[in-house]
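Students often ask why we bother predicting the structure of a whole assembly rather than each chain alone. The short answer is interfaces. A chain on its own may look different once its partners are present, and contacts between molecules only exist in the joint model. In this exercise we take two input lines together and write out one structure for the complete complex. Read the inputs first and try to guess which parts will touch.
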Amino acid sequence: MPTGTLLYAQSGGVTAVINATAAAVLQAARARRVRVLAARNGILGALAEDLLDASALTATEVRRLAHTPGGAFGSCRLKLKSLAEDRAKYERLLAVFRAHDVRWFLYNGGNDSADTALKVSQLAAEYGYPLTCVGVPKTIDNDLAVTDCSPGFGSAAKYTAVSVRECALDVAAMAETSTRVFIYEAMGRHAGWLAAAAGLAGDGRDAAPHLILFPERVFDEADFLARVDAVVKRVGHCVVVASEGIRTADGRFVAEAGGQDSFGHAQLGGVAAHLAARVKDALGHKVHWALPDYLQRSARHLASATDLAHATAVGRAAVEAALAGQNAVMPVIVRDGDAPYRWHVDIAPLARIANHEKTMPKGFIRADGYGITAAARRYLAPLVAGEAYPPYGRDGLPDYVQPKVPGVRRRLPRWQA
Amino acid sequence: MPTGTLLYAQSGGVTAVINATAAAVLQAARARRVRVLAARNGILGALAEDLLDASALTATEVRRLAHTPGGAFGSCRLKLKSLAEDRAKYERLLAVFRAHDVRWFLYNGGNDSADTALKVSQLAAEYGYPLTCVGVPKTIDNDLAVTDCSPGFGSAAKYTAVSVRECALDVAAMAETSTRVFIYEAMGRHAGWLAAAAGLAGDGRDAAPHLILFPERVFDEADFLARVDAVVKRVGHCVVVASEGIRTADGRFVAEAGGQDSFGHAQLGGVAAHLAARVKDALGHKVHWALPDYLQRSARHLASATDLAHATAVGRAAVEAALAGQNAVMPVIVRDGDAPYRWHVDIAPLARIANHEKTMPKGFIRADGYGITAAARRYLAPLVAGEAYPPYGRDGLPDYVQPKVPGVRRRLPRWQA
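Now the answer. The structure tokens for the assembled complex follow.
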């Protein structure tokens, strides 16, 4: 039986299935009789020695956790800088790890977290402290390198495609006397992966979504408005999916075009709101728009079964890799075939992942810049396949759990950043 | 076997289950061997003699229609005025009905549609034309009189409660270093029924949603901001659900506070965007907000089984009432018990429904004005109970249908409004 403690932490924006990864970690560690601590609010809890005794969760709680969205132990947005710049913080992490006999550190996040896990492993080596650091992939942005896709993305993609298909039917019914243009704002500051997933809602020239706006392409307002008008004339209505990250030729985010409200207060941005106002002003069409925001990344009720399987597999593989002493690595999804979809988990060095960003292949965006290609469909389709409903109570609501996890007694003096 | 044709039309905003009502109408009429025409885009198609031969749909298409959101034959927003003011339109309707031997008219909508159906029945009586007019209830606003609830509301309510529960878990995980306040905008211009349904997401002082803003209460910004801040201090984060229809003491819609963007264009309103900016400016908390808009009324993927049963039952009952010659009536839902929930369909005169509006009982809003009472929970809970998933394809998307319904040859000269 391995001796020591495994520390698990979640990082960055949470997803519909990150807790499924956490549950898989807990189950795999339990099977190997390894104690698991969780850092409260990610790396912040590790710095503050604010640790939770995750091994105290019952098997039932862990099973319920596996179908609960959000981040059960809390997450945070905190990027550690280089070992030189943030040395005090890295050394504090190592002190906390020593104090709690942490021998395995699993950091569940995106690019930044992979970088942090790598640096912690380097510092531990420098100090001769026996620590195995494993990154666990997670991000709805799907921008992690090496892995074919990122757990969390498939479920957000399914939510996006289903929601766009549904609201498109609504608009089609209302267009004759009411709303003619509908704009759906998808997350994606740098890459248009989620906007691309909306393309799965329909195929063919007249099928919604009629126009997709990618951050990979310069936003040209005149061209956009002309296309909206042409679609309305041809189809009767127009459904637009806009990435929050689209920019004009001068590099300015369209979402930042928001000004002040009538009280003189700053109006928070929003691509869809801005585009809706432009369509209404310039073309005169009645417009509606939707901004699902966190709904798209917490919609566990509409999780993709493929995504859930990935999230579970990387959690299990991370524990196995850690206990086998595979240091500074991350389990990744490898695609073995599109149709039928086949995949397996491989182990990749963190150095190949940290601070790299996977962009969308050029061949995924249609030549006109407003839709996805067959290659994109082949890539995306398996990721949204399969339904994985959470159980519902008799009250008609999903049976989500917010487990009360006991804290671990501090062994070190309080830490001041 | 009854002779003549049944005309079915959808009106106003569509819902996740109005097509289930349409499917029930088609199935019930088919069982009685009655031919069904549908008006394209609601009453507009009836005026324009733009009719569809709904009886041509196959049994399979009708079954798929029953789980498809939106309005299969198109809907419209067109309120007919009094018989005196809009006499030419009413007479045109009667001419179209005569030309196609329409003996039964089923109008599937809200208050306005009930009024129109009533007036058409009055005109037919005046002219001695044998016509039976039946209203069929539908509205996510839940503001129809007499009926205990309106088909369409339960599914939108379930979407709202589930979405708020999900995004609340997301915010809870992020609050330490990122988003502290989340604002969800619910439909409801005059009545806060959907905002109230969000209250089902949690119960107890510290459970999300922490604050609900109802159009039934005057919006007091200072009080609201103080409460948001207090919740953030106590719980660590705050989830707000705001009805789009909230107003300040001077009667002004908060949603209309939107001004101009930096290009000088009008910014379309939005309660959540406005409140988010105020929270950020006044309290300094990081804020996110969501505006689900049409998503909340087209989310057939998350339909309430109770709502679906209601929508199906009123469609069937409407056909039975019509064929039995019950004129100027509407099938309504009668509640026989809360827990266990029991209900049946009754037939009510349109005169008791047309142009009445059901408001939310005062006893449903908590004394402090920011939450729902136990009485509201008792009323709302059964309406969101039960899951009724649509079938999904192997592509991971719901199997929705947009049936191609053949048009009916015109028999009258074109009509100019």
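Check your guess against this: Confidence is low (pLDDT under 50) at residues 259-268 of chain A.
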